[in-house]
Amino acid sequence: MQHLFVFALVLSGGVLIAVDAHGRFMKACFNQNVLRIAGGGPGSGTTKLPAGPTGLMRSKLQLPSGVRCNHCIIQWNYRAGNNWGDCGNGTSATGCGPQETFRGCSDIRIR
Ligand SMILES: *[C@@H]1O[C@H](CO)[C@@H](O)[C@H](O)[C@H]1NC(C)=O
User: What pLDDT score was predicted for residue 8?
Assistant: First the structure.
């Protein structure tokens, strides 16, 4: 699996949780607010933004319609793909199996 980013909107009382080795959120409540990539670029229309080479990346995210919040969080997840692992189909390769995952969170307001 490639390096990728997944973004989520945590609406209230956000308890930040883990993402499993496949980039899936481990608590169902967060799946409701995984954001789609918008704007027509890489990953557009999906929830997975392919990570490009190093450097600044810009992307647009589609917020759920009608959402307003004074204290919510945009959660950024980066799943790296540079470890060797079991692909689950009898082969092994770089990017398969558990990978390092990095997260960042930003407090935001949506008006
Ligand atoms: C096994 O899975 C990996 C990762 O999805 C894929 O790249 C590879 O082509 C697959 N190999 C076979 C033999 O299906």
Answer: 85
- Give the integer Cα–Cα distance in Å for 20 and 4: 13
Residue 54 CA to ligand 1 center (angstroms) comes to 26
Predicted structure pTM score: 0.69
User: Which residue among 87, 92, 99 has the greatest number of ligand 1 atoms within 8 angstroms of its CB, and so is best to mutate?
Assistant: 87
pLDDT confidence of residue 26: 54
87 lines ligand 1 (CB under 6 A): yes
Alpha helices in the chain (DSSP H): 28-31
Residue 97 in tokens: 């199996």
CA distance 45 to 38: 6
Q: How far apart are CA 98 and CA 6, in angstroms?
A: 16
